[in-house]
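Example A, followed by Example B.
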Amino acid sequence: MILRSAVLLPLLVATPCFGAPDSLYVRTQERTQSDRGPGTQTSLVGTYVRAHELLVYPFYEYTTNKDQEYKPEELGYPGNEDFRGKATENEALLFLSYGVNDGLAFEVESAVWSNATLSKAPEDPSTMPPELKESGFGDTQAEVRWRWWQETAGRPEFFSYFETVFPFQHDKKILGTQDWEFVQGFGLIKWFGWGTMSGRISASYTTSPGTLDLGETGVEWLKRFSPKFRAAVLVEGEQDEWALIPELQWHWSPRSFLKLNDGFGLSSKAPDHAPEVGVVFSF
């Protein structure tokens, strides 16, 4: 009996607890997802979609820019010199996102109604009228987002996305999109005790004039302060247009929450302000 115990005791001590790795994995996931929750990152600030979840987000956005760059010939008037005019836009938008599984999501965003105005620069000598106005169906884009691997204790989450912008406004000049645009992007997400950081970079291709450029780049901080309130700060932009976007989220129920943010231009060509408000519904 003593001999058998002497043989078995070292084996029992050395035998791993098969439940421990799973428990460690669960604890790691709970910690790294404490700010964002489970799911795949969407293109919305501080918003993730879970497997088999449908997010429906109707929202309103108002954009104003006192230094909107334009070229008269691009608007149908003689003159190839760049000018800066005042531009405003009101948009009623709808965003949809569906999580197919833990790592694959599809989304569509469309400005179901838009109203854009561009005021002519005082120094512009062209025959362009003092003010251009257009309204109707606005920008529409679709994305597929793929998580290559989840975050672990020593490795950030890695994801990619592919976006298509549809040229539904061939007859418009200052509203919507006139040419096909394709965007390929990649990003990383990492949890820290003071918040969750994510960063992304992309390349964009526009069919006319057929150019490949560095696309939108962004860095986001997200923090959950309580079960009901989260805050996010995003810095994003491309080329010479950069903006700072702080956001507050109020999760008043498990199935819906309020998003309230404002975009502040960090460069002269970026919009001065772009406040946004809407409610996300989860199904």
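Example B, a separate protein, is given below in the same form.
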Amino acid sequence: MDVTEATFDEDVIERSREVPVVVDFWAAWCAPCRQLAPIIETAVERRAGDVVLAKVDIDANPGLARKYGVMSIPAVKAFKDGKVAAEFVGLQPPAGVETFLDRIAPTEADKLVAEGDEISLRAAIAADPGHIGARVHLARLLVGEGRGGEAEEILAPVAHDPEAAGLLARVRLSEVDLPDVHAAIAALAREDREAALSHLVDAIPAIPRADADARELLREAVVGIFRELGDQHPLTMRFRRRLARALY
């Protein structure tokens, strides 16, 4: 599809939250662009909807070229979850384009994660034990059903991920006997993240500084919610400052 400055946000940014969108920045006078076009179109068609191709004429849409730093064409950028996930510049052979698309196309595990049910998520983990998204999604289901012990086992291998660490902290906070902690867990259960963040941050001053483990659990739980919401979410920006004040 042809994309313009007026349609880019909807056709590329928002669409990429559902399926990877490959954007080909080109111009009519660019001979390598004309050579690349059929190569990339054929490769995308072969993936049968797993990847979407968008084309941007930089002469007609100079603002997009400036925004995404397009200095030379053809320039190809793959968007996932609203952000550039991979890119290349210049004419590439068919094998190079195929390799590029393989990097951003959803795997079988990704497709199972998209199903979202427990059986599919466990199958995704079996197919790709290191798949963070599969483990986090499954753990979230288990926590919601009160199966915290199972969630801990699922999350342990990916505890280095902030969102996974946040969920682990949420499970372990059940052992912290403070009203604000109990209120935060209840707020998370009803998906009221604003209330949960408020209670979690308010709980920090009630924990003695000597109890570093409990304070770290609260910090990880808050950061995990930030990760879930995204860095630019209004709640993340507001509570990040409150967290810093509470900790330091």
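On Example B: The chain has a mean pLDDT of 89.
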